[in-house]
Every structure is written in structure tokens, then in C-alpha cells.
Write a structure and sequence with these properties.
Blueprint: H1 3-17, E1 21-24, E2 31-38, H2 42-53, E3 59-62, E4 70-71, E5 74-75, H3 79-87, E6 91-94, H4 107-125, E7 132-134, H5 142-148, E8 154-156, E9 166-168, E10 175-176, H6 184-197, E11 200-205, H7 219-231, E12 235-236, H8 239-246, E13 253-254, H9 256-262
Helix pairs in contact: 2-7, 6-7
Bound molecules: zinc ion (ZN).
Length: 263
């Protein structure tokens, strides 16, 4: 292991260990969630169709500042896509307005950027608030984890693994779904582990294209993974669907103070 990967693994370990907000998965698993970040249009026009064909709905973590733009992930969503996505039963969730890193921003600036994303989203799709959140680039600090946790229903990072039986709503684990069919076996192993543990498995990707960016996947890979996941879980649900099932009274056990005492 290189020094760099040791530091990165220590950082992940400490991020997962402190300032946790734990809920129990109880009977909700095994469940699988597909999430698309930013998001390029193909995540809806191709990716959304695939998840729907497998009987599920997906979560889209949207950075509203990217609306109508084009970058290496392809052409991003427009207003109509947001409305159609909601009509089709998918979830819109928050990914900051400007796609900024929590590691390079003060909490004040960061939280205002999250609020700005929420406000613009509400103006476009109306009433419902979007309380689930994902950190751009998966970048988060312990201080940010602690503070953001009080503002939203859940925060998703990019630490890999299966959530459950205890779920940390302040940093949901998620696994990249990038590339083409050569990564299928690894994804299947995760799905089977999730089934065995009756857990909550979250995947994330960006564009869905025959020739995807380095941060996206092919339609074939998504199709194979989603249909395998549908056979080996109770359902393919949005983050909102799962967190709603977990937030019953008395289920949340605050462990932040215990974490603080250990530091
Ligand atoms: Zn992103």
C-alpha cells in the first residue's frame, strides 16, 4: 500500500467512524438504490429508462448551476427534464448549486450553496423539498459532516460498501458504477453481499452512454446490474423511499456526543 492510499484509507475510516447519525435498517433490506450525480441528460433519457424497466426508480443528485451546460460528461439536464423526472417518480436531491467541494469551502459558503440549489429547484418543480444530499466529488471533512448532518435528511459520500444493519445518515456509503461490462462481476458480488446482509446498497454514476466518460457507464452495464439487483433485493428504491421507511419515531440514535467524547 502506498503512503497516499494509506492516508486515504485512514481518512475514510475516520469519516465513517465519527459524527454518525444512526438508524436501523430493520426489515427494509435488501434494497438497492441507483443514483446519478450532477446530472448529464443521458442519466435520465437512457439511465432512467433502464431503472424503470427493471421496476425501480432512481435518485438524481442535481447541481442546479450545471443546468443547460455541457462538459466532459455530456449535455446536462434542462428544466423539462427536471419536471419529467419527478412525474416519472424519480427523486430530485441536492448536490450544491455550483458543484463545490466541502474540503475547500467554509461551512457558511457551502451551506448557502446547498440552500441556493434547494431554492432554485423549488422554483422549477414546486412545493416538495429535497432533503437528501450528496457531496460533490465525494469530498467531505469531519467538521462538515457534523454540521451538514443537522441540515438534511441524509448525506451521501463515495465511501464504498454496504449500508446496514446500522445506517449512518450523515454519510451514506455508495459504490461507483463506472465503465462497461468488465465491471459487472464486481457489481454482482456487491449485490449478493447486500442480499446476504439484508442491507442497503447504493450505486452512483454520471452519464450513461455507449462511449461513456471516465465517470459514467454503458447502457449494457447498467441494464445488467439493475436487472440482477432487482432479482436479488426487495426493490430498487430511491434514497427518499428508503430514508422515509427508516425515520420512524425512536429509531434514530444520536451518537454524535459519544463520538465527540472519544476525540
Ligand atoms: Zn458531482
Amino acid at each position: 500500500m502506498t503512503l497516499r492510499s494509506s492516508i486515504s484509507s485512514l481518512r475514510q475510516q475516520s469519516l465513517c467512524s465519527f459524527y454518525r447519525r444512526i438508524v436501523s435498517l430493520e426489515e427494509a433490506g435488501p434494497v438497492v438504490t441507483f443514483t446519478f450525480d450532477d446530472f448529464p441528460r443521458s442519466a435520465l433519457t437512457v439511465g432512467g429508462d433502464i431503472v424503470e424497466r427493471c421496476g425501480g426508480r432512481a435518485t438524481y443528485y442535481v447541481s442546479m448551476g450545471l443546468m443547460g451546460t455541457t462538459n466532459r460528461l455530456g449535455v446536462h439536464f434542462d428544466e423539462e427534464d427536471l419536471c419529467s423526472l419527478v412525474e416519472r417518480g424519480h427523486e430530485l436531491a441536492n448536490h450544491t448549486f455550483s458543484h463545490i467541494s466541502a474540503r475547500r469551502t467554509s461551512f457558511e459558503t457551502f451551506s448557502k450553496n446547498v440552500e441556493r440549489c434547494e431554492n432554485v429547484l423549488r422554483q422549477i418543480v414546486g412545493g416538495r423539498s429535497h432533503h437528501n444530499f450528496a457531496y460533490p466529488y465525494g469530498e467531505v471533512t469531519l467538521a462538515m459532516k457534523r454540521k451538514m448532518g443537522t441540515r438534511v435528511t441524509s448525506c451521501r459520500g463515495t465511501c464504498s460498501g454496504v449500508n446496514g444493519p446500522e445506517v449512518d445518515l450523515n454519510l451514506l456509503k455508495a459504490n461507483r458504477l463506472y465503465g462497461s461490462i468488465e465491471t459487472l462481476e464486481a457489481a454482482k458480488r456487491l449485490i449478493l453481499e447486500n442480499e446476504r446482509r439484508k442491507g442497503w446498497l447504493i450505486f452512483y454514476t454520471h452519464d450513461v452512454d455507449i462511449e461513456p466518460s471516465p465517470f459514467g457507464c454503458t447502457p449494457q452495464l447498467l441494464e445488467e446490474v439493475a436487472s440482477f439487483a432487482a432479482k436479488h433485493s426487495q426493490r430498487l428504491a430511491t434514497v427518499d423511499d428508503v430514508t422515509a421507511a427508516l425515520s420512524g419515531p425512536g429509531m434514530i440514535e444520536e451518537r454524535m456526543s459519544a463520538a465527540v467524547n472519544r476525540t
